[in-house]
């Protein structure tokens, strides 16, 4: 069974646990569900839904992959190469500046796979399923594939 | 088929390859197995079982996400926001200090999925399956879901 | 259905989307495909196939996990522990120096799982499937497991 979640992501974290859980409930079988983002700068991540932890994640990403890099070399470059739009012939001049978003995606996954038991997600006490938006605001699609065991 | 591995993790790396391999063997079919941690600070990771490599991983985590951060700002803060327990109303005063454990989980996965051929894991020469404990010591549960192809 | 992709990886990025897509097409069903690397220093990653983004990834890896570390301690060590071959009794003296490759693997995954709909990969507009070679040049095997939903 496939189900699609459509979200307009204006925040870094969008908790999609309830949507996936409702799909699992209507499916009612046992196996796994793969929750997959169709987008390169939207990731899926299971973590705790605690505000201050989410703040740590934000600060960590800002540190390891800042939007503008420290000036480098004699040309004092602060751009990611991906954002040097003048070299990308097929790309419009007003393309989004999101080189940092792509690098940040290295810390998350395209998808998470979660076990399902008789229509119930097995997530433990603290795990929630999040869509992680690295380049807001966007209309996004997340594909949930339920596979019976 | 679902099987649960229960571990008391006192080490960063717990090799669970043999347990998963034994389950695969008793299952005897072909498909995949998803190995999933129910916990936010216990991850699953496939890597080489070589002691000095594991030391590199430990040093790397200590560097990129130390337990106490370098003092920041005029208040010289060294805590992860998650560890400022006085702001978390629902949390007991003796809560674990594990903000760094949550950030470290960004380098690993909630689960790994491994192919199975006639009851045998396909892992190649060097790959082993590990539970990565980022907040020891804990009683942990890992859920293995076997899915036939 | 299982299919194996054999590649000789002389580059950091090898785009394997077409191979996986062709397998999916011949399979013709709906479900998921898990694309798994049998090797500890070859990873699988879904990202955009844009040259300058790939350059950012290369520079990022060189920064966070350089081949030789900054000199540390009074012995000015620049080696990863994994590369101190003289301490690894079972290892030949001419073993590859790839401690950094193992650390770099923490930024990617052993496998990616992608939804399939009637023999077509669901990847969105920009997602491609790459083999990420962290220790070239090697003969590598990637196992694709197709699972019906």
Structure description:
Three copies of one chain form a homotrimer. With 149 residues, chain A is α+β, with helices and mostly antiparallel strands. Chain A is built from three helices and eight strands, in the order ββαββααββββ. The first copy, chain A, has helices at residues 17-27, 51-64, 99-104; strands spanning 2-9, 13-15, 31-37, 42-48, 111-117, 120-121, 127-133, 138-148. In chain A, the strands form two sheets. Chain A has a five-stranded antiparallel β-sheet, with helices on one face. In chain A, a hairpin with a 2-residue loop joins strand 5 (111-117) and strand 6 (120-121). Chain A is elongated, with a radius of gyration of 18 Å. The two termini of chain A are 13 Å apart. The model of chain A has no long low-confidence stretch (mean pLDDT 95). Chains in contact: A-B, A-C, B-C. Chains A and B meet through strand 4, helix 2 and strand 5 of A and strand 3, helix 3 and strand 8 of B.
């Amino acid at each position: 069974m496939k189900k699609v979640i459509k979200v307009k992501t204006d925040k870094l974290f969008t908790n999609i646990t309830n949507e996936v859980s409702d799909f699992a409930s209507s499916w009612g079988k046992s196996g796994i569900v793969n929750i997959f983002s169709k987008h390169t700068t939207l990731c899926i991540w299971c973590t705790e839904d605690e505000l201050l932890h989410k703040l740590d994640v934000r600060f960590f990403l800002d540190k390891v992959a800042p939007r503008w890099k420290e000036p480098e070399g004699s040309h004092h470059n602060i751009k990611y190469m991906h954002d040097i739009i003048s070299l990308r012939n097929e790309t419009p001049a007003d393309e989004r500046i999101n080189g940092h978003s792509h690098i940040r995606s290295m810390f998350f996954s395209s998808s998470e796979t979660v076990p399902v038991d008789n229509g119930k997600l097995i997530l433990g006490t603290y795990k929630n399923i999040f869509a992680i938006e690295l380049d807001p605001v966007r209309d996004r699609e997340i594909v949930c594939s339920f596979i019976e065991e």
